[in-house]
Design brief:
single chain
């Protein structure tokens, strides 16, 4: 599944997941529910903001604070993480975060409540915290179900130092992190003997291009 599709689902995730909490019995799930409700109110307020630059700034804060990007950065380069020097790691991790932030800004952030049908099916413990199983149904502006249909999604949550964070998003057998890894492996493999250095240069170039596009868009709507 293409990474662009996953990124669109992340935007949906920001809108619908935190706006609806799972009804759970155990104390850990109740803690996650309270966190989701608080975060939901915050995100809904952000998405209602008409100022695009202010919206980007606030969503970036959520991206960096509530999604486990440090784990994601290591996971998506897989075995290559072990071959990186400390200098390369110090360059790569913040670059990966910039790249992720630049990508989500390429998609519309004006999702309307009536265009989304959302239902939490169940929550199950995982090795890190728990998984939330849900279904999302997208509708067109005339309230007719479009060709997208219903999508089954799993949000994998983790808990680090008493802080709940999003670790992965899965659709069927595909995950956001696995899709990133496939793309990054291709980028690294096609490089020369100095594959990591070339990869970092390529990633920096891609990130700068996306950031420039986003800056132009933000100036247009300023």
């Amino acid at each position: 599944m293409k990474i662009k599709y996953f990124l669109q689902l992340i935007i949906l995730f920001l809108f619908v997941f935190f706006a609806h909490s799972a009804k759970c019995d155990n104390s850990e799930a109740s803690e996650a529910e309270a966190w989701a409700n608080d975060k939901g109110a915050e995100i809904l307020e952000i998405l209602a903001d008409k100022n695009l630059n202010r919206k980007y700034l606030k969503l970036d804060e959520i991206l960096y604070n509530d999604i486990d990007l440090d784990h994601a950065a290591r996971y998506v380069v897989g075995r290559y993480w072990r071959t990186m020097t400390e200098e390369q790691k110090e360059k790569y991790v913040p670059l990966f975060k910039r790249y992720t932030a630049a990508l989500y800004k390429a998609f519309p952030l004006d999702i309307k409540t009536g265009s989304i049908g959302f239902k939490i099916e169940k929550t199950l413990p995982n090795k890190d915290f728990f998984d939330v199983f849900c279904s999302i149904k997208l509708s067109s502006s005339n309230n007719q179900t479009d060709s997208t249909g219903r999508i089954n999604v799993i949000f994998s949550l983790t808990k680090k130092d008493s802080k709940i964070m999003v670790r992965d998003l899965k659709i069927a057998e595909s995950s956001l992190l696995a899709t990133y890894r496939e793309r990054f492996y291709k980028m690294i493999h096609q490089d020369s003997d100095d594959e990591i250095d070339w990869f970092l240069e390529d990633l920096e170039s891609l990130t700068q291009d996306k950031e420039a596009e986003n800056q132009l868009k933000s100036e247009t709507f300023d």
